[in-house]
Model the fold of this input.
Amino acid sequence: MADLTLTTFDWVPETPRGYVRDLRVRCALEEARLPYRVESVPFGDRTPAHFAHQPFGQVPWLTDGDISIFESGAILLHLGELSPALTPADPQGRSRAVEWVFAALNSVEMASLPWSILKFTGDTGDTPASKHLDAFLKARLKHMEPVLADREWLAGSFSVADILMSDVLRLVDRFDGLADHPACRDYIARATARPAFVKAHADQMAHFAAADRRAG
Ligand SMILES: N[C@@H](CCC(=O)N[C@@H](CS)C(=O)NCC(=O)O)C(=O)O
Done:
C-alpha cells in the first residue's frame, strides 16, 4: 500500500486559491481513491528542508514512502503507475496519455502561463509583447479545439493527461481566453464536474480558509 503525503503551502493570497497546483495532485489522488495526507510548508519563509524537496521553493511535492517527487506532471505520472483509474490499460492508450501530459505542460501551458501572468497583472493587451503572447496562445488553442471537439478524453479513457490539460485550460478560461473555443470550454466543464475535482477543489479552498481562521 502506498504511503502518500502531498505538501502544499500553509496559506496563499485569495487570487490563486482554487488554482494552486496541489489541486492537480489532489484530483489524481481522489480519482484513484488512494489514501493520502496533506502537509503544509510556510508560504512566507521557505526553509532549506523545503528546497530539498522542491528546488525552486515551490509547491506541490509528493512523498511516496522514501520517494520524494516535485513537478506536478512528474507527480501525476508517478500516480498514474499506481492506479488504472489514471492511465489507460492498453499500451497505445498509455503512450497517448504520456504524450498529452507533455503536450499540456510543454505546448499549451508554455503558451498559456505567460499569457495568464500578463492578464493577472492587468495588462490591457496593447503592447507588442502582449500581442505576441496572445497569438502564441491562440496558435495552440486553434489546434486543441478540434482535438477536444472530437473526443471526450485525450487518451481515450480519462487519465492524468486530462487532469493536467483541463487545469491548464481552466486558467485561460478564468481570464476569458476561451470565448472562441467552445469545445475547450465543454472539456473543462466535463473535467470539473467529476466528483474527484469537486472534492479536490473544495479541499484546497478549505485548506487555505483554515489558515485564514488560524491567523484570526
Ligand atoms: N512546474 C511546477 C510549477 C509549480 C508552481 O508554479 N507552484 C506555484 C503554486 S501553483 C508556487 O509554488 N508558487 C510560489 C512561487 O513560485 O514562489 C509544477 O507544475 O509543479
Observations:
- The CA atoms of residues 16 and 36 lie 23 Å apart.
- The mean pLDDT is 96.
